[in-house]
């Protein structure tokens, strides 16, 4: 990490940190005062989105259903990373061995789309920053289905998520989606209890 001067904040973003077993210990040994921002979304939607991204890179992939369940519609296969990543309570347990809950901000991925300024406002508050990013900085990109940042002064174009974001999801049978909802429900409830925040995924 680069050196941070007084009055500066250094930020780094890596989606895999939250689910990497050794990450909390390494980050704590580097800086035990680190503030941690975790963007979470409905784990069922997240798993389907993960599959869509992998499918775009590997067209011959088995069906979502074949990967999500062992032996057809047998037990949910938690060895598949698309499923395992959504077990937020388990990952948080590992982090809480090194960092207190007060060092975390859990951001709703759904609200980042529906109310980006509100969620970014929470991030600014958590980091002790003045609220400078507001509604006026966003517009909704109908093609992507996501909000984007308006063109900044001196910039040639607006900032939007890359090509790998905003792609349509494959159609997954409702029975498969419901099985995953049922599977995640106790994990989601434990997660809500741990952080004192209910995302309403159930």
UniProtKB/TrEMBL annotation:
EC code: 2.8.2.-
Record's keyword terms, sorted: Disulfide bond, Glycoprotein, Transferase
SUPFAM superfamilies noted in UniProt: P-loop containing nucleoside triphosphate hydrolases
Enzyme class: transferase
Domain Sulfotransferase span(s) in chain numbering: 24-189
Binding site for 3'-phosphoadenylyl sulfate: 41, 49, 165-169
A matching Pfam family: Sulfotransfer_1
MF terms in GO: [heparan sulfate]-glucosamine 3-sulfotransferase activity
Disulfide bond annotation, renumbered to this chain: 148-160
Family, as annotated: Belongs to the sulfotransferase 1 family.
The protein's name in its UniProt record: Sulfotransferase
Organism whose genome encodes this protein: Myotis davidii
């Amino acid at each position: 990490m680069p050196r941070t001067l007084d009055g500066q904040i250094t930020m780094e973003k890596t989606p895999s940190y939250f689910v990497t077993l050794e990450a909390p210990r390494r980050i704590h040994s580097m800086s035990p005062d680190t503030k941690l921002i975790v963007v979470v979304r409905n784990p069922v939607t997240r798993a389907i989105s993960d599959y869509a991204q992998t499918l775009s890179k590997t067209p011959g992939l088995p069906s979502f259903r074949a990967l999500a369940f062992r032996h057809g519609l047998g037990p949910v296969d938690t060895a598949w990373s698309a499923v395992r990543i959504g077990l937020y309570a388990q990952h948080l347990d590992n982090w809480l061995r090194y960092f207190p809950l007060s060092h975390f901000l859990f951001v709703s991925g759904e609200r980042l789309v529906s109310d980006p300024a509100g969620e970014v406002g929470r991030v600014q508050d958590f980091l002790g920053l003045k609220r400078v990013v507001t509604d006026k900085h966003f517009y909704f990109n109908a093609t992507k289905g996501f909000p984007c940042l308006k063109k900044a002064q001196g910039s040639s174009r607006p900032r939007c998520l890359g090509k790998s974001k905003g792609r349509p999801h494959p159609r997954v049978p409702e029975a498969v989606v419901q099985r995953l909802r049922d599977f995640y429900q106790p994990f989601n409830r434990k997660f809500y209890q741990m952080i004192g925040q209910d995302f309403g995924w159930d």
